[in-house]
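Allow me, if you will, to draw on your knowledge of protein folds for a short while. Thank you for your consideration; the sequence and its tokens are set out here:
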Amino acid sequence: METADVAALSTTQLRGLASAQVAGLTTAQVANLGTAQITGLASTQVQGLSTAQVAALTTAQMAGFGTGQVNALSSTQVAALSTAQLAQFTATQVAGISTAGLRGVTTAQLVALSTTQVAGLTTGQVASLATAQLAAMETADVAALSTTQLRAFSTAQIATLTTAQVVALTSTQIPALTTNQMVGFRTTQVAALTTAQVAALETADIVALTSTQTAAFTTAQLGAMSSAQLNALFL
């Protein structure tokens, strides 16, 4: 079947093809499908696409993916997407990527995500980010995380944040951290906190810090603490 003939198929006809038949389409045939045809693909058909077919999708076609179709993408298929393709996803589409699919996101793809796309991640997705993925997250993206997203990080994930990422946390994000998350801070992370961030620490979090963590505070940081924070520090 010629590419023009495939492009002429109605959404009903295309949806009627077996997954194996869709998987048998050439990359040229896939790239020639219309946006309406892409939108009409069943989740099982999307799952059957090869990495070569996924890589052949145009940026315009990417915009036609529904959340159900995005959710059907495997980690291997997600990894096959170019940064240009992934950039076409709206925040809603990004939120539709399954946690299994999200494991396929490469560091290059993660860096390429816009702050709007990162802000669209669900708490489940945030909690599933691997160490390498977290390390690749740009400081602007870290600062754009909502307090709900930030609180979804495990203590292990918090501990893997770079000092630059920690410094990027806003004065709104710092007090939103749970006590367990604060206790998970490495001493280098504690020492990296700006005076503005230190001033935003909740007394309950300061009380929970270990002696090793409190010993990491610099004189400048101690000088930025309120009397209530200092009292909590030396309880």
About this structure: The mean pLDDT is 93. The chain is about 65% helix and 0% strand.
